[in-house]
Amino acid sequence: MSSDVVDPPEFAAVPEELRPASAPARPGGFHPAVAVLAPAVVAGVALLVHFYLPNRQALPRSWMDRLAAWQHPYPVLLVAVLAASLLAAAGQWAWSPLRPWVRHTAPLLAAALASVCAGEIVTAKTAWMPQPYFPGPDEVLGALVEDRSMLFESTWHSLRLLLVGYATGVAAGLVTGVLIGWSRRARYWGLPLLKVLGPLPATALVPLVMLLPLPEFFCGTALIALAVWFPVTMLTSSGIMNVRVSHLDVARTLGADRLYLILRVAVPSALPSIFVGLFMGLVVSFLTLIVAESVGVKAGLGWYIPWRKGYADYAYVWAALVIVAAFCSSLMTLLFKVRDRVLKWQKGVIKW
Fold first, then answer.
1. Cα-based distances in Å from 343 to 231, 237, 270, 335
2. Where are the beta strands (DSSP E) in 196-286?
3. Using CA atoms, how far apart are residues 237 and 173, in angstroms rounded to an integer?
4. What is the pLDDT of residues 145-173, one digit of tens each?
5. Do residues 44 and 12 make contact, with C-beta atoms less than 8 angstroms apart?
6. Which of 12, 324, 330, 343 has its CA 20 to 30 Å from the CA of residue 20?
7. Is residue 161 within 8 Å of residue 73, measured between CB atoms?
8. What are 48-102's pLDDT values in tens digits?
9. What secondary structure letter does DSSP report for 200?
10. Is the dihedral of CA 329, 330, 333, 335 positive or negative?
11. Cβ atoms 79, 111 nearer than 8 A
């Protein structure tokens, strides 16, 4: 007789995430105490590395030379993270609603700090990655603090261009996607156009866009919108074409007209596919942003990075890249929040 234990049918039908757990889940596979204290430990190690390992790189002169070593932005940040981590560890022990968030976030923060510490070791401390191309985190944070006003202005210009271009591309992609997915005639004429224009990189059109008698902001917006339009159109049309016929038949039986079928049946059913297109479009928009800002604009991170690179100020280049990564992650997180709210009915059914 086999010794395998088989779930009864009524239990096997229950989704795995809804089954009672025999033990509490461990964040990242670590014991909760280890996970909660990990950021403080890693921050302490990073401080020891920063102060007690000698620098091998020949560091350029900067505004930080006037400050004591412990007043530099990098050690100040590490001390702040160390103090905040200890406070969060004590807070989650005293206040249970804070516990899940702290236990989930702490290992990720510890991994980020460990990556920064490793970056300092291979740059400033050992010079395995040489100056001026690979500055240490202390230089990068110093550049971020020193040039904060221009970086803030450039970030604002980039964010405005990105959002306008992304919104334009999404709007155009949703309209064309619904038309191609719903209408056979639109599909007949639209799919060949998609096959021709879709694979064409938006960045390849920069020389042509620069010849247009339009303001540079509109040229950059058009490039980003074109890059976003293709994935949104493809995924939207795919979602519309895959709507269950039975849903449409029931709505027709109840007297629904064509506009109702499109807006109240087809589009809601296609939302999972549409959101995949929105995510793909957001990623592509960031890839196009830096190139789009080379079309004669006078501000923006795409303008700032080549400008600083021309003076070999690579610490400032890395500071700008940190900002790009930060607001890319923030917008992606915001889109995830919107998706989770709009698709609440999918929770536990589809995961992506």
1. 20, 19, 11, 12
2. none
3. 9
4. 999 999 999 999 999 999 999 999 999 99
5. no
6. 343
7. no
8. 999 999 998 888 888 888 888 888 999 999 999 999 999 999 998 888 888 899 9
9. S
10. negative
11. no
Nearest to 59 by CA among 45, 44, 74: 74
Instruction: Please count the other Cβ atoms lying within 10 Å of the Cβ belonging to residue 48.
Output: 11
Alpha-carbon distance of 203 to 291, in angstroms, equals: 6
Backbone CA torsion sign across 43, 44, 45, 49 = positive
Residues ≥6 apart with Cβ < 8 Å to 134? 122, 123, 314
Residues belonging to the chain = 352
Is the Cβ–Cβ distance between 26 and 98 less than 8 Å?
no
From 150, 126, 142, 147, select the one nearest 60 (Cα to Cα): 142
Angle at 105 between CA 102 and CA 106, to 5 degrees: 75
Which CA distances in Å does 214 have to 164, 176, 197, 217, 260? 16, 25, 22, 8, 39
Type of residue at 181? G
Task: Name the pTM for this structure.
Answer: 0.81
Number of H helices, E strands in the chain: 14, 0
The amino acid sitting at 152 is F
* Fold designation for 149-346: MetI-like fold (1.10.3720)
Distances (CA, A) of 114 to 35, 38, 41, 46, 119: 14, 10, 10, 8, 8
Helices marked H in 133-244 — which ranges? Answer: 137-146, 148-182, 184-197, 206-209, 216-241
In terms of Cα–Cα distance, which of 191, 167, 169, 170 is closest to 179? 191
Query: Which of the residue ranges 173-177, 267-271, 289-293, 346-350 would you say has the lowest mean pLDDT?
Result: 346-350
